[in-house]
Amino acid sequence: MKTRTLLLLWACLGTACVSPASQTNLPANINPPVKVNSTKNIDAIEFLTFAETFSNSPADSQKQALIETNRVLGLNPDDLLHRMKLVMIYGLPSSSLPDTPKAQNLLQQILQEGILENSQLAFSNLLFDHLVMINKVAKSNSGDPKRLESLQQKNEALQIKLDATQQKLEAAQQKLDELKKIEKSMGEREATPKK
pTM for the full model? Predict the structure, then answer.
């Protein structure tokens, strides 16, 4: 528990975050600190810590995390930690707010900027591979409903043909039964002695 608290404190210091409440309590002659996009101070452990915390949170808490992350990114769009949080909010399998194509695009932008350190890059590449795989599966499954509908239509057409064939068979059987009756009655007439 202490480690997690220290990691979160370190994450806050690493991104030079200042809460709005603490900014309002600063003397008028002191400017609030400027948020810095310091990638060197953010470790992949912070990404993993957020992923674990977020994954174990109920849907309401996950929505709050999205709101807070968007708020911070509204103030500083270059905040790497919160940009990665947004990727995880949309891309983690346990998210109640999934949007893996959006997560993949956001992460691809971060990777293309070349701002990640080694451990961050390893984590990000792993997450990116996961998102690519999920999106490929989703695309291949999106054709399944179309295929299923096509198969249903073919099945219905075959059922109609089967019904028509069944009716023809019944009609043919009825004619055959009538012919047998006629043949039987003719045979009975021939067998009956004439008076």
Answer: 0.56
Q: Does any domain span residue 23?
A: yes
Number of domains observed in the structure of the chain: 1
DSSP state of 193: P
CA 31 to chain centre: 43
User: What one-character-per-residue DSSP string does 14-61 give?
Assistant: HTT---HHHHHTS-TTSPPPPP---STT--HHHHHHHHHHHHTS-HHH
**Tens digit of pLDDT at every position of the chain (195 positions):** 333 433 333 343 333 333 333 333 333 333 333 344 445 567 788 888 999 999 999 999 999 999 999 999 999 999 999 999 999 999 999 999 999 999 999 999 999 999 998 889 888 999 999 999 988 888 877 666 677 677 778 777 777 877 788 888 888 889 888 988 888 888 777 777 666
Q: Is residue 166 part of a domain?
A: no
Structural contact between residues 43 and 120, judged by C-beta atoms closer than 8 angstroms: yes
Three-state SS letters, 113-131: HCCCCHHHHHHHHHHHHHH
User: What's the domain range around 36?
Assistant: 2-142
Taking the C-alpha atoms of residue 88 and residue 101, their distance in angstroms, rounded to an integer, is 12
Domain-embedded: residue 92: yes
